[in-house]
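Side project, low priority. Logging it here so it doesn't get lost.
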Amino acid sequence: MELLVDTDLFCKLGVANLFADALVYLRVREDECRRLPALTHMLRRGRLPKTFGAEACMALVPIAERIPVIGSPDAEWLDRLTPVDSIDPGEAQLFAMAAQQTLIVLSGDKRALRAIKDVSGYAEALSGRVIVFEAILMLLCDRLGHSEIRSRLQPLTGKDTMVSVCFSEGNQDPVGALVSYYRNLADEVYPLVLWAPQNGGCS
């Protein structure tokens, strides 16, 4: 099963050394992933190195280069997203391809998800096929333990609000907090149905 991976979530999981584990527990091989063409360029310069550090991003370049680039979706699906300001061209390409070919999307763009629920045909086409950051962290906490995940997420502290809240030093129940975030987002994007962590894989 192909897994389409958005740039920001690839970077967050990669910087936290969780991308490979995520693929294992989703039962997806690296060569079954697809990424946006600009990912390798964005890891080398611009917003991502400024946010996560140049060294951390450069370490992800070889992984990104091994992942095949996404193809071009049909205009039938892509054109429906073009007028939506809160969906950038890269996310539009990922969502359009996922809808067209019934694929899974790993996405951290909440603004786009809140908007796409109202675009004709997308809620139905993507139902159960969008994996958000909260969901993959819930799965990883279940498989690796929240203490291990807390440790690995340290590079994201202060850079991702949800991570900073759920895995703060004073929070002894990060999974409960993740579930709360996940449910709130699920309510916001309905009738689009998010992928549920209990699915345990993409196959």
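Brief comment: The chain has a mean pLDDT of 95.
Revisit when time allows.
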